[in-house]
Predict the structure.
Amino acid sequence: MTKTPLFIFLLISFHTGVAQGINSIINQKEVARIEKTLSADDMEGRKAFTKGIDKASAFISAEFKKAGLLRWKNASGYLQPFTVLKIKPVSASGDIDGQPIDEKSIAVFSALSELTISNTGGYEKMYISAGDVFVDKAYKYLGAQKNTIVFVDTSFSKIFARFKGHVEQQFKTPRSVVFILTEMNPKEYKIQYKQEIVSSKFTNNVVGMLPGKSRKDEYVIFSAHYDHLGIGAPNEQKDSIYNGANDDASGVTAVIMLSKYFSKIKNNERTILFVAFTAEEVGGYGSQFFTKNIDPAKVMAMFNIEMIGTESKWGTNSVYMSGYEKTDMGKILEKNLARTQFKIHPDPYPEMQLFYRSDNATLARSGVPAHSISTSKMDAEKYYHTLDDEIETLDLKNMTEIIKAIGLSSKSIIAGKDTPTRVKEE
Ligand SMILES: [Zn+2]
């Protein structure tokens, strides 16, 4: 792989005024300190719902505090806590236009132990019809702010069974969403549902805010997930901790460094939110909870940073962006980087559906130009989800350059001069 010669970096610094500041604020020594702390053995692999991840959460909070970030939504700190419930369905039955409905055709997303849903009130009626993209619509309704009943066409019976299994792990939220697999367009219905709450676990995102100078109600988000896989089975050759140095301590390091950078230069017209998500590896719960607590219409752009510690398939000074073709955000970032050697490529692994597999997905489904930025060679990333994903395998110099480039690429969006197009609802 060719390394970019030093003179090019000098040239970049010379041409862009901001770049001078950025080199001293986003420096490799600080990147290494943060990355090392997050991927250290004493974080125990940062698995959601463990003590190890609480340590990581406390560290990220302390860094946000040092950066001078404000709390978001008058929270008592940077932590955004929520509960994940483990549910065991007990019974489901009902009638639709006089005909009994099978238990298998009812999927319920709710924190309540007992529900009665009928056409006489309280639930908004929605449909997933033949030919719709089931996953997109189902998750959209799952994120609804109101109690909702969704009638799903029977052409989705196969995927419905899997979906039903998935919705059994849930958040504690005040509203319920009920999915019914049926051939009818029902007028009258009554469904009864009971479930048992087996256990509940607390976890939290970490959120810091830098208020915009003028457009306070327009958000730009930099995010990454701070959870990883925890501790594996005892291993004779090496320690059994999944350090997740690349996945995704590298992204969290970027978020922290960018928070320091933007709070130093203090020229953001739009409000910037810096978010470390929990529980990505076990189902994306952190980002789903975050999405439910923000108005998507106010989010102008989201930079979700996933695994930037290794060289991309094109070598150094380059990344790819998932869902590149879905908005014009990539073009805006490229324009802001035009004077540099840095390249942002479309996602080279479209068959892997990366756009819908990370923490950007829930906001993207609500129309937000929300993309993941990564260097991970998904077909050849040797240490991905292995015990060897350790700091020694990362290229910290390149990673530092990537973090700077992400910062510079967002310049006109932060300044309120450019607004990326929205993701079209499917
Ligand atoms: Zn990840």
About this structure: The longest strand covers residues 189-210.
